[in-house]
Batch of 3 targets.
Target 1
Amino acid sequence: MKTELFVAQEGGGKAYLPNVLEGVEWSTQRSGTPGRLTFRTAGAEALRLAEGAAVRFSVDGRPVFYGYLFTKKCGRDGVAAMTAYDQLRYFKNKDTYIYENKTAAQLVRMLAADFGLRTGEIDETGYVIASRIEDNTTLFDMVENALGLTVQNTGRVYVLYDDAGRLTLKEQGAMAVGENGAYALISEQSAQDYEYNVSLDADTASRVKLMREDSETGAREVFIARDAAHEAAWGVLQMFDKLSEGENGQAKADAMLKLYNRPARRLNIKKALGDVRVRGGSLIAVKLDLGGGETVSQRMLVEKAVHTFKEEEHTMDLVLRGGGFIG
């Protein structure tokens, strides 16, 4: 495995191949978070690198990350801890948009053009949003809202990510990692360790209570869905929320109970053999014996991927979702 980290000042400044200490870490998440590259380096050249410098990282000649230096932490020992983000960092910007008759894909292209961002493959999402007002909202939320409407109306899920310097939007099914129809496999042989957690402490409800309040009269309607057997076993674990105008209260309460009326199960993979094709939003195959008669053998979604590159070692930690695991 050959890695190369290249840093250059924007506007034709001097290029630099930093002497990396303790390896490079690249992390991505499925949604709402930019890709991040962190590394430590030493030397006067590194300390003079200005914020906004372009950062490129490749593995065996394959581009993995392209972004910009956002944070530099320096100590008396002359070592600098560097953090770079890809273009999705600019999706944390807030703005107000009013748009009509646009698909989510067209929205992504519009935002990229307005903020001077480069695009790559943008899958056409099909569903046309008649009109939408986004007031004082992050670009991330604007896109997530548009993609949410697309899911509701077409059933198709899309992932937005930065592919080594190009904003990319792909349908979830196209994010499978593997060759010839086979998925990349996480198993006892490829993962050094895993963490399997089952808990009632978060994201679990035996009762859902929703309330609607009339803005004019102050009258309140309450809708409740409950599982008496689980209330007896777990106690009352209540999830409460207020309803928006036009929502079907009882239908929503029933749907929420169906979703949250179970122990929360999480599966994190530790130090698996690294594969740079795996990122937040990827689909991979998982086959593990979790002990106590619990096994998993299915395709799963990568909610978060953290790759670590040290000399000739490349490992990845994964947070997985699917099949009852909530990520």
Target 2
Amino acid sequence: MNNIHKTAIIEEGAQLGENITIGAFTIIGKNVKIGSGTKIASHTLIEGKTTIGENNQIFSHSTIGSIPQDLKFDGEDVELIIGNNNKIREYTLFNPGTIGGGSITKIGDNNLFMGYSHVAHDVIIGNNCIFANVATLAGHVEIADNVVIGGLTPIHQFCKIGSNVMVAGGSVVTQDIPPFCLAEGNRAVLRGLNLNGLRRKFENRSDIDAVKKAYKAIFESGNAISDIAKELLENSDNKYVHELANFVINTKRGIPFNRK
């Protein structure tokens, strides 16, 4: 049985699962689908072609699925997909995709979006990420799993953030950040490996040692990073080293590190 406040507006056509809570003065648009167990607080707007999974918690004054902040947008059929078990705090803004970016903004499972965080058009986010207050993702940004973005941190459009990355609060990210790394600064640069994150993620110490060795070879040897990455792919059988090396080889915006 759903618990819907009498002042909420649910437009005809909206699809609601079971055991959903919808607070006062919230508006749910006609093309919205909401999975079972999701709780939506008061004064929230959910519109557009938006699909929200199960057991999400959306706090008050969030705006979910409003049209992209892109001047090229002209009413095309675009979509926002949100997975399960996400916490979306107050005054957050999530936009759907655009035709030029594949038409979909997609968010995975078990993420925390703190107050005033923004997910722009065509953003792809994995699972188990944390976005602190006023983390701001521009269009076409890609975020892998287990990423932490500090507060007041904007990420430039088309940037990619690898898995298990931590970006310090107050940074400005304008280039790609490889997996397992720490980044900080305006403009953000690599500050080493996210060792605390790796200790929580990796079961074997040997994997951490392999990533440490690979990081030093790529970013501290003074040689061309793409050449070193290709050598690591050929000479290492460690899957995490391969993940790091492939990211370096395939970067489009470049990687910000202090060259020796």
Target 3
Amino acid sequence: MAVHALIFGCGSTMLSATERAFFKDVQPWGLILFKRNVADRAQLLRLTQDFRDIVGREDAPVLIDQEGGRVQRLGPPHWPAHPSASSFARIGDPLLRRAAVRLGARLIAHDLRALGITVDCLPVLDVPVAGANQVISDRAYGTKPEEVAISGRAAAEGLLAGGVLPVIKHIPGHGRAMADSHHALPRVTASREALVAHDFAPFRALADMPLAMTAHVVFAAVDEREPATLSRRMFAEVIRGEIGYDGLVMTDDLSMNALSGSFADRTRRAYAAGCDIVLHCNGEREEMEAVASAARLLSGKARKRAEIALARIRHEPEPFDSVDGRSRFEDLLAGSR
């Protein structure tokens, strides 16, 4: 079956007739969900299964951003609220902190798998610096690269144990950005040496993870013009080079205002830079059609990376008592207060 190197969003809590026909024709690799797509458990399970039925692939990935804190698409009353990444930094004992992060991610995976969601855009490996834009802030596990790497790996392991793929983001790092890439294009002027030691380090430490998402950020020390998502030099020298990442790389959302040009142009430039898959999130039909008009088939190295990633989904998750896990998790968090 010809699958395109695309991930799309959808407009509401059920797929419209137009969306169903579009997805059947275009055959995107995956679907990403947001709060607008969520009503309750039964509805969400129907939506994820409906998408897979339409594209005819039971292993078609369904993604979501379920980090905790400010960024969680599932929440009360149907799902628990999860703490932000920065909340774990208050746990003084590093072993207990790591255990709490892993257990929190394992609880998230338990919820997601029950809904047919197989990919979580977590962990955030960005390392914020003083004065940076607040788009990352409490979404980060700490302000030191080694802290972020240790907690990021714990989160990734918790997701994998529960049969959910993690996505390391935003490669090669969004922590220095002085602007929110949802609204403007950030430009980082730090030296290459500073970037390697600080920003790139957590991604290098987790280079064995199956999926990564790019940063719409210009790193002048590497490429003065293009954001990482669209930079051939960034991919060749840093992402595939210094960081040594050989997993599947998806773009951050192509509809973010950090990027310019038509959606077809953004799509072509992302592929040309080295992105394996492009991500478009807002469900706007005209934009999706423009992205699809420039889409590549998932083939070659990109297809192999996608196959390797999907093969890491545990079809029988690690045994887990969610009630006991929730109790242990609350105890670990309580000890940090």
